[in-house]
Amino acid sequence: MEDSFIKLIESSIKGNWELNALTDYKGETLRYKDIARKIAKMHIMFESMGIQKGDKIAICGRNSAHWVVAFLGTITYGAVAVPILHEFKPDNVHHIVNHSESRILFTGDQVWENLNELFMPSLEAIVSLPDFSLLVSRSESMTYAREHLNELFGKKYPNNFRAEHVSYQYEMPEELAIINYTSGTTGYSKGVMLPYRSILSNVQLCQERIAIKPGDSIVSMLPLGHVFGMVFDFLFGICQGAHLWFLTRMPSPKIIAESFSEIRPRVISSVPLVVEKIFKKNILPQVDTTLGRFLLKLPIISDKIKTRAREEAMKVFGGNFIEIIIGGAPFNAEVEAFLRMIDFPYTMAYGMTECGPIICHSFWQDLKQNSCGQVVPRMEVKIDSPNPHIIPGELTCKGTNVMLGYYKNEKATQEVIDKDGWLHTGDMAIIDEDGYVYIKGRCKNMLLTASGQNIYPEEIEAKLNNMLYVSESIVILKNEKLIALVYPDWGELGENARSKENIDSLMEKCRQELNQQLPAYSQITRIKMWPEEFEKTAKKSIKRYLYQDVDI
Question: 424 — phi, psi (to 5°)?
Fold first, then answer.
């Protein structure tokens, strides 16, 4: 196995020189040699303004070919990449740029129009991602270098720029590669310091388990500012010589169906929400219009319908993929059961930003239902429970993938990594005799009733979200009563949505049907309608803390 991540990048660029590397869907395509040329020009700019090894460079914009170039230009120079989710509010972007002490910010147009350079006084340059032009420069040498870039490039490489000119300095395993600020469901951002050993180990896991060869297509749907998409789509893909495609827009079921049939990706990474929506909106109704919405609930389905459902599902996702890797949030149990029933090739990946990201994963042929798989190589897990096979306890882990800590926040680091080096994930889990891990919910989300019962709201919400008129929900505990906040599926409600009495009546039926599936101690007392979609993190997890104190 390779012992340097930068060496993997360098070897891939040289070895796949003429192959297509990056395409903005319905836009331009860069080959591996184009990436190398743009990286070389970027290094000239960095050198001119005195960027040192270990200096921080922030990147904030939608997924695009130039986002990838900015990131690769940063780490191959020896600087530290600070990817920032483009969905973050401007004040959070300002805070992250300042807190990380970034010297340069690469930014997309839509992000830039809401930012204010006066609130980021330490930045020396702000660079446009679409064309790498200077939006703001506080460095005369940077301004000069940008204006004379082609001339400086020609002087440095007088006899054309060739593959043999690609030579980057390799890293040490403990060296800092990335500071990734988590959005999290607790409302504030912490900078996760990921060393090169973590990035390399995660990419190696992909290499060990996903058969991608040079020229294969990968669609980048997950935000590159989030470590799941960054590693599984981008970094792994580039190391394999794959052709990465960026949709450059929200991955709606319609856009996925249209673009995937053209791109025909070999591997797809997704959060559960996207897969669940596509199955409910695009696949089940195609299989059988009358049965479609009820298929998830039927214990027995004919082979003919199973075959049709599988064919439709494979077609929607391009018909050429090895598997869909689902991670980032819990997967709906009934949708998963249906995928297994039709032999759909999905696999679960469980982890967290602090592990860059992977902790557990299993091949789809081996995966046990409702499990997130077994612990991956170079990592170990331990569950803090008197009987981890039966009684849920907090999942802790240690190993090569674990972060260095939180940037400039020793207190938060010590709260999550104990003195023996175990990282406390904050997830409650059990583990079976074969080493398969089952996540029950977040420790902090667990509701403790006066009678001493532990309730995991995620398990109730998963059942509720499968109901016909429910789009999404949150379960909270108020005055010892469980209340469900529900944002309804207005499309399914149709004519019924005209009258409040009709909606209330349908929601009451949902509540009664739900309670029949639950033990007495976790039954819902009432459903409160919510007027809009719940606010979410980049992983599409609901920001639960915003809804704990609502008036009922």
Answer: -90, 115
Domain containing 501 equals 446-547
- What is each CA distance from 445 to 173, 223, 417, 440, 521, in whole angstroms? 35, 25, 20, 10, 17
Six-digit token string for 100? 């990380």
CA distance 317 to 336: 17
Instruction: List pLDDT tens digits, range 439-456.
Output: 988 888 878 776 667 788
* Terminal Cα distance for the chain, rounded: 57
Tens of pLDDT, residue by residue over 41-98, are 999 999 999 999 999 999 999 999 999 999 999 999 999 999 999 988 899 899 999 9
Does a structural domain hold residue 266? yes
CA distance 117 to 94: 8
Average pLDDT over residues 106-111: 95
Position 73 in a domain: yes
State the CB neighbour count (10 A cutoff) for residue 536. 16
Q: Are residues 260 and 184 in the same domain?
A: no
For residue range 234-285, what is the model confidence (pLDDT) as tens digits? Answer: 999 999 999 999 997 777 878 888 899 999 999 999 988 888 888 877 787 7
Q: Are 31 and 18 in contact (CB under 8 A)?
A: yes
Residue at a domain's end among 302, 322, 344: 344
Sheet with 470-478, strands from edge to edge, namely 470-478, 481-488, 526-529
